[in-house]
Specification:
The protein has about 325 residues and is an alpha+beta fold. It has helices spanning about 5-30, 35, 40-60, 85-95, 105-110, 130-135, 220-230, 245-250, 275-285, 320-330, and strands at about 65-70, 120-130, 140-145, 150-160, 170-175, 180-185, 195-200, 210-215, 240, 255-260, 285-290, 310-315. A hairpin with a 2-residue loop joins strand 3 and strand 4.
């Protein structure tokens, strides 16, 4: 890792930790039985905006020339009827950055995520896994650096994923640099920045593998996934969770296959939903392609326009899994 790359990684680690802290604070204060009963998504709205503002502020301070392609923009938040949500966002951002901030500062930080997805830029999903966030399940802060269509750095902050043992509370941070492997770092202990290497599972029999798939059936065709499992001889129940924590689970060797099978022919994935997770799995020794076996192509703006669906595996069984998916999807 060059000094420049090392600096970029340390800035990104600090930004993801701050964003995860904001998300956890919002979840503890605003997600209640009442909001869940009313299907009120205002907590995740506050956390989404606050998380993006915190990450963009950190990048603006330390890497001011770097563009950001984020999931959110502040257009709706600027409207008068959103005053209560805007006030909550600003309060949480102020707590994260440790000083008073104005509404306009926070809105401008959020809008910094509106850059064009070309050349060199960071892509950010401030909360990946909305339903997981609301139900107290898995969600992630996902940040990746893309340079000329190649993902160079990837980070997944996973506040509710368990560590490797001995931690007082859940929460892990997975980092990856192209050509340098993937590592796991404590999410909340800011004194720890290097962590230890992680590697995918060495399982080389598809029948012995475990699936990882979305909780939400709308995200992936689970009936087709079940057919793929049957073809491969897999009998273990799938590990179901929200967000790019599925990539983290494969990268750590706790599952061997993550399938995101298209639910409709014309759907294309957003880059921020996969860039960080893909690099973490690949640098941990795994492989990630679309359902036809093509590498993910990040040269077409904000979506993976030339790819359909996702297959992530531990690598050794990848071709066999792709073949099974092709047979099922026809």
């Amino acid at each position: 890792m060059t000094q420049t790359r090392a600096t970029q990684m340390q800035v990104a680690i600090a930004a993801v930790r701050s964003a995860a802290t904001v998300c956890r604070a919002v979840q503890r204060r605003l997600v209640t039985a009442e909001t869940l009963q009313k299907r009120d998504k205002s907590p995740v709205t506050v956390a989404d905006f606050a998380s993006q503002a915190v990450v963009c502020a950190a990048l603006a301070e330390s890497l001011p020339d770097d563009a950001v392609v984020g999931e959110e923009d502040a257009h709706v938040l600027r409207q008068d009827e959103q005053a209560a949500i805007r006030k909550a966002v600003v309060e949480h951002v102020a707590g994260a950055v440790g000083c008073q901030v104005t509404d306009e500062q926070v809105l401008d930080w959020i809008d910094r995520g509106g850059a064009a997805a070309s050349g060199r830029y960071w892509t950010l999903d401030p909360i990946d896994g909305t339903k997981g966030f609301l139900r107290g399940g898995q969600y992630a802060v996902a940040l990746a650096l893309i340079e000329n269509g190649k993902v160079s750095l990837g980070l997944l902050g996973c506040p509710n994923l368990p560590g490797d043992g001995g931690e007082d509370q859940p929460g892990v941070l997975l980092t990856a640099e192209r050509g340098q492997g993937a590592r796991i770092v404590p999410l909340w202990d800011r004194s720890q920045t290097t962590g230890r290497p992680i590697h995918v599972s060495q399982v080389d029999s598809p029948a012995a593998a475990r699936f990882c798939e979305s909780v939400e059936s709308a995200h992936s065709d689970q009936s087709h996934a079940a057919q793929v499992a049957q073809l491969l001889g897999i009998t273990a129940e799938p590990v179901r969770m929200d967000s790019q924590c599925k990539y983290a689970t494969v990268a750590r060797g706790r599952a061997q296959i993550y399938l995101r099978l298209p639910t409709r022919e014309d759907y294309r994935e957003n880059i921020w939903d996969h860039a960080a997770g893909m690099l973490v799995v690949e640098q941990a020794g795994g492989q990630v392609t679309d359902v036809t076996g093509k590498p993910l192509d990040f040269t077409h703006g904000r979506r993976l326009e030339e790819n359909a669906g996702i297959i992530a595996t531990n690598g050794s069984i990848h071709d066999t899994v792709v073949d099974a998916v092709r047979r099922v999807l026809g």
